[in-house]
Write a structure and sequence with these properties.
Layout: E1 2-7, E2 15-21, E3 24-30, E4 36-40, E5 54-56, E6 59-61, E7 68-70, E8 87-88, E9 90-93, E10 96-100
Antiparallel strand pairs: 1-10, 2-3, 3-4, 4-8, 5-6, 6-7, 9-10
């Protein structure tokens, strides 16, 4: 199911926003090159919001302990995290971001 998130220009390049879909928090990220990515908004190392972290290239870094995650695969790229986080398909239509998300 495609869920409307926001307009593309509502997110600054190199930043992320946190959206809540039911009980699930997801970070919607706009890379500096303008790509839109969606990743779980919880570091697999701890209960830290990734949307408050640092976006660099195709990675997001947890602000608390420095773990980096791939925005493409969710893979943990640096310690202290070693477990991946989920990524979600993003659709862009008429300059609007939609997330392909099924709460089931």
């Amino acid at each position: 199911m495609a869920i409307r998130i926001c307009a593309v220009d509502e997110i600054r390049a190199g930043k992320a926003i946190r959206v809540k879909l039911g009980e699930q928090a997801i970070a919607i990220v706009k890379t500096k090159s303008g790509e839109i990515k969606a990743i779980d908004d919880k570091c697999s190392h701890g209960e830290i919001s990734l949307s408050e972290g640092f976006v660099e290239g195709n990675t997001i870094e947890c602000w608390a302990h420095g773990a980096k995650f791939s925005l493409d695969t969710g893979e943990a790229l640096t310690l202290p995290a070693f477990e991946p986080v989920s990524v979600y398909p993003v659709l862009i239509e008429d300059d609007t971001i939609y997330l392909d998300y099924d709460p089931e």
